[in-house]
User: What shape does this take?
Amino acid sequence: MKEISNQMEFEQTLARVSSADRPSLEDLVALLSVTDKSDLEKIYAFADRVRQEQMGEGILLRGIVEFSNECDGTCHYCGLNRNNARLPRFTLSREEIIESVGRVVSHNLKTVVLQSGESSKLDPALFAEVVRDVKSRFDVSVTLSVGEKSRDAYALWREAGADRYLLKIETTDEKLYAALHPGMSFGNRLRCLRDLKELGYQTGSGDLIGLPGQTPLAIARDILFFKENDFDMIGIGPFIPHGQTALAGQARGSVDMVLKAVALTRIVTKNAHLPATTALGSMGKDHRIDGLKAGANVMMPNFTPSPYRKMYEIYPDKRCVEEPVGQCAFCIEGMAKSIGRCVDYGKGDSLKKNQKEGGR
Ligand code: 5AD
Ligand code: FES
Assistant: This one.
């Protein structure tokens, strides 16, 4: 792979990646390999300009309610994996979910994300009722994030009124994917994403940065995957090792690599919604601010009630676990102001053409 050796080449590479229909892997890898501080700042500033042109100054808020940490999965990176016997499991009742959504709405937010582990205990018909109930009570967009399910289940929830779905690819490196997800298949992941799109969900993907064995080439491929699939939303965060997983003791992802991935994803995908992820805010200093300055336009304040919030421990030292419900929304207002941006209290639908014409 080629290295960028001078300033002109650097600027030309950035310009090519920005204007190409299909940027080359070589160019993406070259930019992902940049380490010079002032060059990094230039990549982030370029992405920030694209964000400004495409998405404006508003930071969209999605209130997240983590309603269950039950999980059948054994993902090697995730603290909710079923082999983590130390984690007490919880599932909110329907009433508790409705109450939590009510708090999201009372803070003026117009999107709620209902997230859980991937569990066969989630009854598709009952969950459809919860979605229907939420949609009939509140004027709110509903995003679901409950893992790989059958097309029928996705269809049922869509009919019940769900608007959006998040299912990250985590990594497009199939070998790495197989190593990290015993018993799962990359093909089924793709099937799910296809079904979700066909059913008219605004669909979100994303990846983890810094997985053991992940190369810059793999991250470049992730970015092209996001572009080719024209996802409406793309969540990119650092891998943070969790003590009760197979990857305990491994190094965590680097902040700079996450920011480069966010920035290049913004430059390449133009108008996808990109969150400054909670994981990015959970690496010592709150690096979500840096994410917002490197192309991100979304934040996801936490509305999971206590005492459950700290039991949704996907990775350690997750931020905002002690704060009272709703505190995050206020805090984000301050963060937005501090960087000359504002909070956008709209629904924040997809700006992708397919959705503007065909979606709701
Ligand atoms: N570090 C950071 N993010 C993680 N996720 C799962 N485990 C970890 C970890 N150890 C992310 C995955 C998943 C999302 C809900 O949480 O990307 O899609
Ligand atoms: Fe949660 Fe600041 S965003 S307390």
About this structure: The longest helix spans residues 37-55. Residues 59-347 form a domain with the TIM Barrel fold (CATH 3.20.20.70). The two ends are 43 Å apart (CA to CA). Residues 301, 320, 323, 327-328, 331-332 surround FE2/S2 (inorganic) cluster (ligand 2) (CB under 6 Å).
